[in-house]
Amino acid sequence: MAGHNFNFTGGEHLTKISATWFVSYSYYLLIDKNHLNWKNNKTYISRISKYNATTEYHKHWLGQIKNMNDDKLIINEIGVSPSKTKEMANEILAAHEVTQR
Hints:
Blueprint: H1 11-17, H2 19-30, H3 44-52, H4 58-66, H5 82-99
Helix pairs in contact: 2-5, 4-5
């Protein structure tokens, strides 16, 4: 899989996880347990470990991803379009804002 380097805080870690996979797994954990696209990648177990080790970046990453160029999100192995990835990132951020009130 061709990856992209992300030039923002923690981007070197997100590059290893994949932005679309990160959003898909976050969406599964926080919004919809029926969303299982993140499992369509054979390296999902190691990605979960990286996900769990980078929680301090997650909110920042979601903000970056929702404004990302589609070219950075189009290449993924889990069948989630760039527009759906951004939609899910927005929904996660909105839910996060509600829980912090």
